[in-house]
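Hey, can you fold this one?
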Amino acid sequence: MQEEILISPQEIYSAYLTVINDIKFSKREIDIISCILSGKSAKGIAHLLSIAPKTVEAHTYNVMKKLDCPSREILISLIERSDKLLLLKKYYLRLLSYSAFEQTLKDISKLNNDEEARCLIVIEKEEKKLFLLPQVKVHLELAGVKASLKVRENGESSPYLISKQRFPYCTLYALSKKRKEGEKSNYISFSKTEDYYFYVFSVLKKLFPQKNFDPLIEEFKKKLQLITYFSKVASPLRQLTAQKRLIIFHLTKCLRQGKWFLFILLVVYGGVLTYEALRPLSKDKDPLQSNSQQPTIPPETIVRSDLDLPNERVLLKRSELMNQIENKFKNQTGIQTIALVGMGGAGKTTLARHYAHRQKASVIWEMNAETHKSLQESFDLLAQALAKTEEDQKNLRELQRIKNSIEREERVVQFVKERLKNLSNWFLLYDNVERFADLQKYFPQDVATWGQGKVILTTRNSHIQNNKNINFSLSVTELDPTQKIDLFIYIMNNGNPSIFTDRQREEAKIFLKTIPSFPLDISIAAYYLKSSNVSYNHYVEQMHKHEQDFENVQENLLKEAGDYTKTRYNIIALSLQKIIETHKDFRDFLLLISLLDSQNIPKDVLNIHKDEIIADNFIHHLKKFSLITQESSLSLTPTFSIHRSTQAIALLYLSKLSNLNKNKELLLPIVTTLGAYGEKARSAEDFSKMKVLVSHYETLLKHTQLLSGIMQDLISGDLGEIYFHLGDYIKAKKILKEIFFKSNKNYINNQIKWAQGLVYFGAVQRELGEYELGRKFLEQGLEIYKKQIPKNYENIAWSLSHLGNTYRNLGKVEKAKANLEESL
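Sure. Predicted structure:
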């Protein structure tokens, strides 16, 4: 009877298991023995005891050495013949339940980290030796409670103690978590509880009345039920194993001696023995087969939506991202939310569904969160799936008859919340979220009303990761070269990569460099090539044209391969359309960034082009659709980048929308903006800005079909001047010479640019040692400045200094002195 009330493994060890077969063992060694007896592996033991596998091996070696056992099997056989077998089994079960209990307390402490509670345990003097008393303190502290012990002498009065509850092992008083200054102390009386674990839980509920621990406690109950169930299974099976070893010994002996009659009798006896050993288990209710009123153990999925995934043979398993998701969810309680953020076609939905497929949860459901209507429809379907009983189905039918759409919507959401709260470890996937505000009422936020579960949402809106309801966010970006070639070959050869020769693999790698590195683009290319049997070059040519027939074929191929029908062009075009509809100036911004280099676009260029506040709003909307791939705000020149495929599609889309080939004047403001930014950088001699500008000027010049002659000359002139400041005089000379000797009419009409170009060309000639030629151009430029724009003192002074230095190089000291003094 006394043994039955023992609570912890420590108590059982101290009372009964310090010595086995006249050999003394430490508590840790008893831990190891009980786990080995129960069939746990070294890794399993390490996980249960929270110690390193090498530590397990060391203790196992010590145990075997003490018992003189050469193997685990002989160790088990030796323990089974000892009088401590049942105690060791009980010890192991307590070890399991104690470990689960303490983990639950740790999970509770995470929910309590925003509140503080204190608990006073008053011990009668005759009770203070009981092990439980300090253990209560330890366990309350694990749950985040500041506990303290007080020993009360016999007959001592405690005027501050109002009420108490006798527990079989101690007297415990719990101080309430909040008390105002001067207020009378409030001590809590507890109702009778069934055992120690739930007695501690009841204390915690009193101390934290606003918190909902029920999901965690229910999860702990399931673990206890499972431990109890398998203890019933393990006992007869362990006994049966010992008897079987004896039968096998006699069977072998009969075979050797040729006693066939005895051999058959032993086989029959073994079968009967197995049946009799396992028959009592069928009378006990198996928790794995429990009804809907009692959660299954372990929880099985009772509600699941269709989660469409590519065929296993062509599914790209992005293990690094899967592991990151798993690690983010690991050891978390309550409602955990992860956002998968990335541009369209990055594989966010496939990744989320793949993770969902691996979950063991009571509810696994995907919500289409693209629009309010689609989200509402998804919740209606979830409500129908959760309505398992006739009463639930009746209630749901009544809700659906409500005519007021707002009230009906709110009631359906409440219906879902109540059922999810009663189930454990649900998993919800919100796919394609645009704005978090659109799904507020549909999104689990409070564990007290929704229960405990996991949430993954997929979105292109990178701003969502800053929402307070998102615990973690992961960026789903491009595939690396290995993933690209693997996915391509999987699709081309139905999951058999060995069909590709080394040469074919190299050709495929070269081809894949020409297309975006996202799963969508790789898949479309593979399916198109596989069905049409065209060459790689032909596909790239068609891809750059983005003709409607080509888009239609791609959509049909995607539709046949799965439920995703948006091509890269369609995804970007739809995003651009929404951005343009937001503000009238956003089209001009899009045209600007689609004509420059896609990488390291200076934000200041946008600020010069339009108002700075509008520019900030534009960048905000680019992020909303994950169109910005990289942002740098640490340097003196803040920049952002977009994907090259996004830029190419944007230019094609805007060219069609604005008919740029016929309306070239639309590009003049862009040329003017870039020129103003370049002039500012040159005037300030800001070399970092000028270095960034080079690639943007060069990229803009490639759009010859869209630029007029004067635009090309203006851009070339600015680029030549930037090369001069950066010290690349050869490139500067080549560009400026081409302008002057090709045609100067564009510059003649712009006296400032014409004079500036002449001076720069003269300065370049001087730097390259062509002093006489340099003098000629410098004097021509200076003359235009003085006649046409005599108050442009900065440029005149700059021209005079270069001319003075050129005269110095020519040995004409007096003229050099005169020009330099005039410059000063």
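The chain has a mean pLDDT of 77. Let me know if you want another pass with a different chain boundary.
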